[in-house]
Amino acid sequence: MEIRQLKSFVTVARVGSFTKAAEMLDYAQSTITAQVQSLEEELDNRLFERLGRKVVLTREGEKLLAYADQILKLSAEAREVLSGSAAPRGALSIGAPESLCVYRLPGLLHKYRKMYPAVEITLKIGTCADFIQWLRSNEIDVALFLEKKMNIQDLIARPLIYEPMAVLAGSGHPLARKEQIGLYDLQGEYLILSERGCSYRSAFEDMLNKAGVRPSSSLEFGSVEAIKKCVISGLGITLLPRVAVEAEVAEGQLVDLNWSGPDFNMTTQIVYHKDKWISPALQALLDLAGETIK
């Protein structure tokens, strides 16, 4: 099992195409095909199903992918350590929820790219549960969490900034006329929520359940922008980080309801595994995040 075989395998798995993988790696397609076939023969397992032009991982391929990612990361780390260079370079994989990708990460990544152009950054969007799994399996190097202050034994969390949350309605919604609202004002209301696994959605639903408050129904979106559009149109009530809605509130499209209920206590944190090797690239990101997101 060779590094170049694993790199070809991982690239095909990510892009779903032997042709695209060959273009990305600057190989002939026949070379990519031969490397994957050689790997399949060595492991005595079919790694891909080839359905016309579509290429998908088999169950055995999915199992190998997690190990291949780790092997390639460790190989890159070993080369960096042995090179003797302290300058940040190589690859860095970052996990972040969509809200932070849009409203916190751009400024950080813009500064980082200008300062360390030799570092190749990959961004993976997911939920807090995804990030915990990916950090433990070494699929990502570091993650930004929007969460209550974390205390997980095998993860190191550095708080960056407290994130006020906003309960929001469209300007024409009846609750927009109230001086303040609490949990019981949401009885029978229609909620527009982020996807399951989102930390602030979970906190919101826990509050409502403990108070015995039953919304009439709810609609779920994976996109903050889609949630805002639905609420602006008058479809229902939502909860979002205030940083994500400042423009719409200032323009009068959304109303930040004066929430008198419990505090959501959300904080943006940068998190990595306690056993993770802190490469110069990762250390530079940790330092810059502390300076930029505050």
Automatic annotation (TrEMBL):
What the entry lists under Gene3D superfamilies is as follows:
3.40.190.290, Winged helix-like DNA-binding domain superfamily/Winged helix DNA-binding domain
The record ties this protein, via SUPFAM superfamilies, to:
Periplasmic binding protein-like II, Winged helix' DNA-binding domain
In this protein, which residues make up the domain named HTH lysR-type? 1-58
Name this protein carries in UniProt = Transcriptional regulator
GO MF annotations in UniProt: DNA-binding transcription factor activity; transcription cis-regulatory region binding
* InterPro entries linked to this entry: LysR_HTH_N, LysR_subst-bd, WH-like_DNA-bd_sf, WH_DNA-bd_sf
Identify the keywords attached in UniProt to this record, alphabetized: DNA-binding, Transcription, Transcription regulation
The family line of this record is:
Belongs to the LysR transcriptional regulatory family.
| Gene source species | Desulfocucumis palustris
Q: Which domain of life is it from?
A: Bacteria
